[in-house]
Amino acid sequence: MKYLKKALLLSLLLISHVSFGQVAEKALRLFIIGNSFSQNATAYLPSLVKENNQQLVVGRAELGGHSLQQHWEYAEAAEANPEDPKGKPYNGKSLRMLLSAGTWDVVTMQQFSYLSADLESYSPYAEKLYNYIKSLQPNAKILLHQGWAYRSDAKKFGRVAPEQLAKNQEEMWQKSRAAYHAVAKQLKVGLIPVGDAFNAVATGTEYRFTKDMNFDYDHPVSPNLPIQTNSLNMGYYWKDNALVFDPNHANEAGRYLGSLIWYALLFKESPEKLQYVPKEVPAGFAAYLRSVAAKTVKDL
């Protein structure tokens, strides 16, 4: 777990504003309760919004590596004692303080990726957070952000039950997908199917990632890297003369795909019409990702 914690980003703790035009009242107000995966999956959302001259206000309660249970326990601590520092982990603010900053149209939450395939880990925290959000923002639409499975060459995968890990990417995806759908059905909320889109790419034919079997992983030489074409995850990279492996977090292509899904769900528009592409993502791959995003949202 140590390498995960080091790789996870610090939370974006302050409410950020991404608005375009003069009429702020027309902005979609989005509040995200999550962790580094929600940060990854919305990285290019502002750029996509800007392209179409739309307006978006984003509030964030994101802490790297955090689960639904941890977010709920912070809220619970703050409710018991508003002055308790344990209840104000978001840059000195509580979840109540952030959620009460205006009216939010959409509020999202997600499970920590390592626990996402373990249905038991959602209970009772997803329901408690749902009820808490509704008590503060009764008119908000609540959505579950579905995370993705780790890359196929990961050395270990997420938990599917206490003391039991998924055997591979496929099992992690199937069980995390089942868990998210079960919780969404229980709470009667919608899903942001980023995990489904990642899996569609991972199991596709034209742009599927495959591990480079010719690279010497045991004796790497800087700055050489294995071929990682079509990866949606960070994978291997050099840092401080050490070869780092992060098969979990999204790279620029993965962030682009996630942002396309979020955009399509929030603004009810096809991502295939979008022109913006991060400079790190090849044009052909980007076009394919837009088509995957469109199909994933359509099939939801």
Automatic annotation (TrEMBL):
Entry keywords, A to Z = Signal
Q: Name one Pfam family in it.
A: DUF4886
Task: Please state every residue range assigned to the domain named DUF4886.
Answer: 30-214
- Annotated signal peptide: 1-21
Domain of life, per UniProt, equals: Bacteria
Enumerate the GO terms in the molecular function aspect. Answer: hydrolase activity, acting on ester bonds
Q: What name does UniProt use for this protein?
A: DUF4886 domain-containing protein
